[in-house]
């Protein structure tokens, strides 16, 4: 991910190109004010950040979606962008966009949510020395190169010079509630992308002291933080008095932070949590038998992959990467570890997306003899023990060990697991390019556009491109797709780009996930969106 999108609350299951939603129990009207109130206690992992410009991981976005709101949200049924704080988002040429903002919204400190709030936020995210993870999402705005830091000699660790500019030339204020965005090149998908939380507005007080704002956010959404972020303990948010839109349902949401999901499950069993949005794989059958209708399941667009550190000499030859992929029996791992619940991935685009293709990956089918041939052609394995990486406490050990066993049995390469880092540390290791072997990561679309499964992970220099893959032809095809007049016209270009990475395998596709969440007896209405996950702000509690 590292992010997801959409917010939905409906009583029945609604299926569209990208999004489905379901709620369990209680009255069928999720906006029923009579069911509002109470404290919702939810499972959480330690976030990496609470600043929207920096946060691109799931634990962070779970909190940020409740305390910030942006220009655009996504329709539950179609996945199409809809105005949220935007009055309008318009363009005549797909390159120069005019955005008008609804009046009357403020931050929790009283500052106005206006054109300045969005311009300052996007400039802060884009400015290279600020080192914000979501700078990548500003890449299409004119002037991005002038605000970016560059390695002076390409070898590090020399200090990069100050960028030529501190603000994006493509952002211009028209009046208090209007600004224009000039893109470097036409992109018809722009209104879709700005629903991603990284495009949230930022209070001026946060720009002046973003570290303080990371600990005690100054949001503009339905909820505000109570106190400050208690690292590795919890985060509590309460309804915001300054929010002018539809209020959140619970009075308070208590994010209880656990080191691992097993501890979270134990707390749920003990009645200390109301919602556990994920389950330990080994406890799935037990949970299904115990909680019945309060165990929520549905296929998801969550992509699990094994990344290949191309920056490491042992993985530069694509034939090594292809060989490893071809000895992995995905279905057998899914059956043994996940009770057959997931779907083997044979491509990089979620099956529910328009433009996805079945069996697109020729190196995702088990073929030990072909794998041995490829490895031999590459000169054999010379890297010693294969180090397999995953973050701690999320139940990845069992399936990663199965991968290691299959590689060892087929190719004779011994392995060891590296699963000692908590998620925030693990992401830092990824960002710093310090993996010494294949690494587990996941991804879900940040916005409902096919490009979201390709550009953030594999385009040159993208912040989530943890493999460091770079292919000018791939980048060029993405640009051709971006400039198309419609999604349908863009699809052939994106598919050709996907074919390139399916040949080069910067990451090994593993599977598409399936949601398994449980909620307690205190929850009257459980609300889930297949892409945004548990929508805590729309859940209702039984009134005592």
TrEMBL record:
Residues 81-464 form the Solute-binding protein family domain. GO terms for cellular component: ATP-binding cassette (ABC) transporter complex; periplasmic space. It comes from the Bacteria. InterPro entries: Peptide/Ni-bd, SBP_5, SBP_5_dom. GO terms for biological process: peptide transport. The lineage of its organism: Bacteria, Bacillati, Actinomycetota, Actinomycetes, Micromonosporales. CDD domains: PBP2_NikA_DppA_OppA_like. Pfam families: SBP_bac_5. This is Peptide/nickel transport system substrate-binding protein. GO terms for molecular function: peptide transmembrane transporter activity. PANTHER family: ABC TRANSPORTER SUBSTRATE-BINDING PROTEIN, PERIPLASMIC BINDING COMPONENT OF ABC TRANSPORTER.
């Amino acid at each position: 991910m590292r992010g997801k999108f959409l917010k939905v609350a409906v009583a029945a299951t609604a299926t569209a190109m990208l999004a489905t939603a379901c709620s369990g129990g209680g009255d069928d009207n999720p906006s029923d004010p009579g069911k509002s109130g109470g404290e919702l206690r939810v499972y959480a992992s330690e976030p990496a950040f609470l600043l929207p410009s920096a946060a691109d991981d799931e634990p962070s976005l779970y909190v940020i979606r409740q305390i910030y709101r942006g220009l655009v949200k996504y329709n539950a049924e179609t996945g199409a962008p809809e105005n949220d704080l935007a009055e309008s988002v318009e363009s005549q040429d797909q390159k120069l966009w005019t955005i008008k903002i609804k009046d009357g919204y403020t931050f929790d400190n009283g500052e106005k949510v206006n054109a300045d709030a969005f311009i300052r936020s996007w400039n802060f995210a884009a400015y290279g020395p600020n080192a914000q993870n979501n700078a990548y999402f500003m890449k299409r705005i004119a002037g991005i190169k002038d605000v970016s830091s560059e390695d002076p000699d390409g070898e590090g660790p020399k200090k990069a010079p100050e960028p030529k500019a501190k603000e994006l030339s493509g952002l211009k204020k028209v009046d208090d509630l209007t600004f224009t965005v000039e893109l470097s090149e036409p992109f018809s998908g722009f209104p879709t992308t700005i629903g991603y939380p990284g495009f949230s507005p930022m209070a001026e007080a946060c720009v002046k002291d973003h570290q303080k704002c990371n600990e005690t956010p100054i949001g503009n959404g339905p909820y505000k933080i109570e106190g400050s972020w208690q690292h590795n303990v919890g985060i509590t948010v309460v309804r915001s008095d300054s929010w002018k839109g539809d209020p959140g349902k619970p009075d308070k949401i208590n994010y209880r932070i656990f080191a691992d999901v097993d501890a979270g499950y134990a707390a749920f069993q003990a009645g200390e949590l109301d919602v556990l949005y994920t389950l330990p794989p080994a406890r799935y059958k037990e949970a299904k038998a115990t909680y019945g209708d309060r165990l929520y399941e549905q296929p998801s667009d969550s992509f699990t992959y094994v990344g290949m550190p191309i920056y490491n000499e042992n993985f530069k030859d694509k034939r090594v990467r292809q060989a490893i992929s071809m000895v992995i029996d995905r279905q057998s791992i899914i059956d043994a570890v996940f009770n057959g619940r997931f779907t083997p991935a044979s491509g990089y685009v979620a099956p529910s997306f328009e433009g996805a293709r079945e069996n697109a990956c020729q190196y995702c089918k088990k073929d030990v003899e072909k794998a041995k041939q490829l490895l031999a052609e590459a000169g054999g394995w010379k890297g010693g023990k294969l180090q397999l990486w995953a973050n701690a406490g999320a139940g990845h050990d069992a399936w990663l060990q199965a991968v290691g066993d299959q590689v060892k049995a087929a190719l004779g390469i011994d392995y060891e697991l590296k699963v000692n880092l908590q998620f925030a540390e693990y992401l830092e290791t990824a960002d710093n390019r310090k993996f010494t072997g294949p690494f587990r990561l996941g991804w879900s679309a940040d916005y409902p556009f096919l490009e979201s499964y390709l550009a953030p992970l594999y385009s040159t220099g993208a912040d989530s491109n943890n493999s460091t893959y770079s292919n000018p032809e791939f980048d060029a095809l993405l640009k051709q797709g971006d400039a198309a007049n419609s999604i349908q016209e863009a699809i052939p270009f994106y598919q050709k780009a996907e074919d390139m990475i399916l040949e080069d395998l910067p990451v090994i596709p593993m599977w598409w996930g399936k949601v398994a969440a449980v909620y307690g007896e205190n929850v009257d209405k459980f609300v889930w969106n297949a892409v945004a996950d548990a929508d805590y702000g729309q859940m209702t509690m039984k009134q005592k």
